[in-house]
Specification:
about 300 residues, 5-stranded parallel sheet, 4-stranded parallel sheet, binds norvaline, OTCase_ArgI, ornithine carbamoyltransferase, Asp/Orn_carbamoylTrfase, transferase
């Protein structure tokens, strides 16, 4: 395999505040180049990215594949049936095989431990495209959106309402490096991973709280929600519909939050469950800006992690 080069992107707190801000700066640059259709910006020319998916995807697949291509590279989509990670072949074998051909591996997997194993055995950077545990690329796109809409991330109040899932874990880990107020409002029994919450509190950078009290949305700069049942949990939706009913992000919850509050959702959304069509389509909804920013945030991450700056 070629010599090891670059950094994995597995968790947001694997990076310093300055490194995260550098990725966001690079993301802004990528977006500006895209908007001006600057076709000369090809920092990934001659490079390839293998993308392993064991779950469905619209945004992650298209934004990574399109984004890498636009900056000169070639991306390979490996669907859930192609590699059959861990079934047809052990994860540690696939890590060494794919890193023998490619400059970077992006993976969307169920078990977070599989992603860590992939990274351990890969000689090229591994980028986390979502696991059951976290979704750092999404939260970088959300951070970029917040920066564009509010002019800042630090000093804002972000309130997540819903299931204490992978999205929440990445917000908590961002809060270990950037300073803002993060509140997770969830029904009892659906709290985020306790050690991740404790870790975020112990970092002493941001104010962190987890509560079942809806009133915590008051004064939020962002109200964020996500599906009540994530990929891999869809069969539990009937119980969840009952447990989450008081936590729907609807017009009255947005009114309780206040006029300053933006609405965010990583998508895909289930209108009528975690949110309503009215909120999704309202002027404070920035859900499609978040989706658009996935491509630029990820290109910023790739530029940073592949140390591609010298090719720019
Ligand atoms: N938000 C997000 O990751 O979307 P996909 O599941 O469609 O990739
Ligand atoms: N929490 C959701 C996010 C999808 C982008 C899931 O894991 O299914």
């Amino acid at each position: 395999a070629p010599p090891k080069r670059g950094k994995h992107f597995l968790h947001l707190d694997d990076f310093t505040r300055e490194e995260l801000l550098d990725m966001l700066e690079k993301a802004k640059l990528c977006k500006a180049k895209f908007y001006t259709r600057d076709e000369s910006f090809k920092p990934f020319a001659g490079q390839t990215m293998a993308m392993i998916f064991t779950k469905p995807s619209a945004r992650t697949r298209v934004s990574f594949e399109t984004g890498f291509f636009r900056l000169g590279g070639h991306a390979l989509y490996l669907d859930p049936n192609t590699i059959q990670l861990g079934k047809r072949e052990p994860t540690k074998d696939i890590a060494r095989v794919l890193s023998g051909y490619n400059d970077v591996i992006m993976a969307r997997l169920f078990a977070h431990s599989d992603l860590l194993e992939l990274a351990q055995y890969s000689s090229v950077p591994v980028i986390n495209g979502l696991t059951d545990y976290n979704h750092p690329c999404q939260i970088m796109a959300d951070a970029l959106t917040l920066l564009e809409r509010k002019g800042r991330i630090e000093g804002t109040k972000v309130v997540y309402v819903g299931d204490g899932n992978n999205i929440v874990h990445s917000w908590l880990r961002l809060a270990m490096r950037l300073s803002f107020e993060f509140v997770c409002v969830c029904p009892p029994g659906y709290e985020p991973c306790p050690s991740t919450v404790e870790g975020a509190k112990a970092a002493g950078i941001s104010s962190i709280s987890v509560t079942s009290d809806i009133n915590a949305v008051k004064g939020a700069d962002v109200i964020y929600t996500d599906v009540w049942a994530s990929m891999g949990q869809k069969e539990t939706i009937d119980t969840r519909k009952v447990d989450f009913a008081p936590y729907q992000v609807n017009e009255s919850l947005m009114a309780l939050a206040g006029r300053q509050a933006l609405f965010m959702h990583c998508l895909p959304a289930e209108r009528g469950l975690e949110t309503t069509d009215g909120v999704m389509e309202s002027p404070v909804s920035v859900v499609f800006q978040e989706a658009e920013n996935r491509m630029h945030a990820q290109n910023g991450i790739l530029l940073h992690c592949l140390e591609a700056t010298k090719r720019m």
